[in-house]
Fold:
Amino acid sequence: MLGYRDGKLYWRTHDLAQIAAQVGTPCYIYDLDGMCAKLRTLQSAFPQAEIHYSLKANANLAVIRALSAAGAHFDAVSGGEIFRAVRAGVAPERIVFAGVGKTRHELDYALQLGVAWINVESSGELTRIGQLSRALGVRPRLALRLNPDVHADTHPHIATGHAAAKFGIPLDQAAHILDAHDPERDPYCIEGLHVHIGSQLQSVERTVEALQAALALIDRFPFLRTLDLGGGFPVSYIGEPVPSVEAFAAAVQPLLAGRQISLILEPGRYIAAENGVLIVEVQYVKRASSDTFYVVDGGMTELVRPALYGATHDVLPLRQSDAERTLAHVVGPICESADVLRTHVLLPLLAEGDLLAILHVGAYGAVMGSTYNARPLPPEVVLEGDSWRLARRRQTWEDLLREEI
Ligand SMILES: Cc1ncc(COP(=O)(O)O)c(C=O)c1O
Structure:
C-alpha cells in the first residue's frame, strides 16, 4: 500500500525517500510480502492448481526465495534462470524448463539436474531431448507446448498463441507427435500439454478457446494427465479495467470439472508487477515550447517497457505537494528518443533533486534492464515486514569492464 504520510510517500511502514537516500537513485524497491499475497490470491482462485512463478518477470534471488517459501514452483525459460532458482535453494523437481530455443548445453544441464519437466516447443527439440536423454541415461517427463492459433487480446509483442507466432507446436503436428509417442520405447514420457497465449490478457474468452483446444487433445490421448495453462493474468497499470483472476477461474473451472488432470499456472506479471517501484531523481527541468520535460536519472536502461511496448506507468512524487498539477513528460538520460518513462502525466511543479516513484514495475522491469550507454544496473531493495535490505548492489563502472579481455 502506497500512500502519503506527513507529506512523504510511504510503502506500508517504509519512507521511500529514506531508502533512496541510503542506496541512491535510480533504484528498484520490491514488496516481498505483497508478492506472496498475490500468490495466495491465485492459490485461492485456483485451489487445485500448482502455481509455477514465471521467473522471467523478476528473478531476483530474494524474490525467488520468498515465493519458494510461500509454496511456489518455478517456470524457467533459460539455463540461467534454472541456475538462479537452484542457487536460491529451489529443488530441481520444482522447476519446469520452457522456452522456444533451448540449446544442447541448456537441455543437458536441465536433464542432469532432473528438473520436474520440460515444455517442448518443436519436433526438432523433441528429437534433441531424445538424443540427449539416451546419452545421459535419463527419462524426462515432457509437456508439448501447443500453438492453438488463438489471437490473444493484448499487445502484439506479447501475444504468443496465434499461428504466425514462433511459439508452440501447431495442433495437427502435436496430434501427430502424440500418435507416434511410444512411452515404452521413447527415452522420454510425454505427460502433459502446455498453452500460453500471451501476457497481460484483456479477455478470458481467448483463454477458454485455448483451453478447449488443449482439452480436445487430452480427450484423444488419455496418457496426457497434466495441463499447464500458462500465465498472462493482467494487471491494471493506470486504473484501467482488466479481468480479475476470479473471472479467469470462473470461465476455466467449469471446463475442468470432473476431469482427472493436474492443472498448472505460470503467472509472472500478476505476482510481481504491482509489488515493485522504481525511484528516480529529477536532474533537470527543461521547457521546450509548451512542453515540460523532467529529465531523470533512470530511463530505458532501467525500465524498457514504455519504449518497447508503449507501456504506461503511473508516477508519484515522493514529496506530497498541493501545487497546481501540469502536464509533463518524464524522460531518461539515454541518447535515444524512445527513452521516455512517461509522457503527458499530471505532476506538481518539480525541481532538480525531487524524487519520483514509477509504479507497477516489479515485473519485466529490472530483469529487462541493460547497460546501454555504459550505465551500471541499479540496486534492488526488498521490503519484508517492517525491515528492508539491499538484495542487489548497484553495479559499478568497474563491474562493466570485468568480462572484457
Ligand atoms: C511460457 C510463458 N509462461 C508464463 C509467462 C508469464 O506471463 P505473465 O507474466 O503474463 O503471467 C510467459 C510470459 O510471457 C511465458 O512466455
Summary: Residues 54, 56-57, 75, 98, 160, 196, 199-200, 230-233, 266-270, 363 surround pyridoxal-5'-phosphate (CB under 6 Å). The chain is about 30% helix and 25% strand. The CA atoms of residues 78 and 102 lie 7 Å apart. The mean pLDDT is 95.
